Amino acid sequence: DAVTLEQRFQSKVDDDERIEPKDWMPDAYRQTLIRQISQHAHSEIVGMLPEGNWITRAPSLRRKAVLIAKVQDEGGHGMYLYSAAETLGISRDELLEQLLAGTAKYSSIFNYPTPTWADVGAIGWLVDGAAIMNQIPICRCSYGPYARAMVRICKEESFHQRQGFEIMMTLARGTPEQHRMAQDALNRWWWPSIMMFGPNDATSKHTAQSMRWKIKRFSNDELRQKFIDITVPQAEFLGLKVPDPDLRWDEATQHYIHGPIDWKEFEEVLKGNGPCNRERLETRRRAHDDGRWVREAALAHAEKQRARETQ
Ligand code: ACO
């Protein structure tokens, strides 16, 4: 009966055994994974836009080649993650429809603009840095396909983080104007990056259950704290100032203490009122429409091949 199945499922999770697509799982577990993996996949896809904005204007051929590769990696991550979500019984078409209809969530961070080249550096350093902090534990997620997809994704994210830090280093050690650009990008990306980890533990509605299911291994605040502890010394190394007047090292806990987070801003971005929410969705919809002929041509070609084979 259902209780026994659920108990058996939970003891597998407790023993760190992987749950695979054909295994029995509680419906709420399945729905939670569909929710999280689809949000994650959409984040990768929408995440291509802020940086894609700079491909045509990258300051050198080398920077352009690296940026194209990076943005392409993000597209690849989206594809793995849509595949992982499909193992739970939802189709890629459905997921895409939800994204284009504006009913699916994607990470708040990708609703901020990228007005200067330094933003490409700040995104790699901070946004991909935060993504790694959040995603390394997902390599040990109880759901097999999600955990396995995360291994390669994390390796690629770590290259992205380094390329971002290297851009920041070049700017921070460049001319006074370049240094100012780097500082300005840090000023604009710091707080949104901190918010990426999600609401604080007191208000996070899914954390407790997701931790029991070992979908999440750490709470939002724990990961946020780890990120701050690692990143503040990196900003010091760059000679840049973290835009938080309350930030201080706490000898007793061996952690940085940060100032208050503007949760109103976070809520507004989640409601669709961030600086670029509308623009991002419009761009995605346009790309989907512009790509229609490619999908149709690919289908027509596949049809023709099939017809030839059965002749
Ligand atoms: N942006 C948008 N929505 C968010 C964010 C965020 N930064 N953080 C939390 N939320 C949403 C949650 O999705 C949830 O909404 P829902 O119930 O409608 O789905 C709500 O806020 C409450 O948050 P939590 O209870 O804390 O939700 P959850 O347990 O899912 O934790 C988290 C949120 C940490 C983002 C988790 O889903 C996760 O680890 N996801 C995988 C990583 C990921 O998606 N990264 C994307 C950005 S990184 C990148 O792609 C480069």
TrEMBL record:
GO BP terms: phenylacetate catabolic process
Signal peptide (from-to): none
The protein's name: Phenylacetate-CoA oxygenase subunit PaaA
Organism superkingdom: Bacteria
SUPFAM superfamilies, alphabetized: Ferritin-like (SSF47240)
Pfam families in UniProt: PaaA_PaaC
A cellular component term, taken from the record's GO annotations: cytosol
GO molecular function terms attached to this record: phenylacetyl-CoA 1,2-epoxidase activity
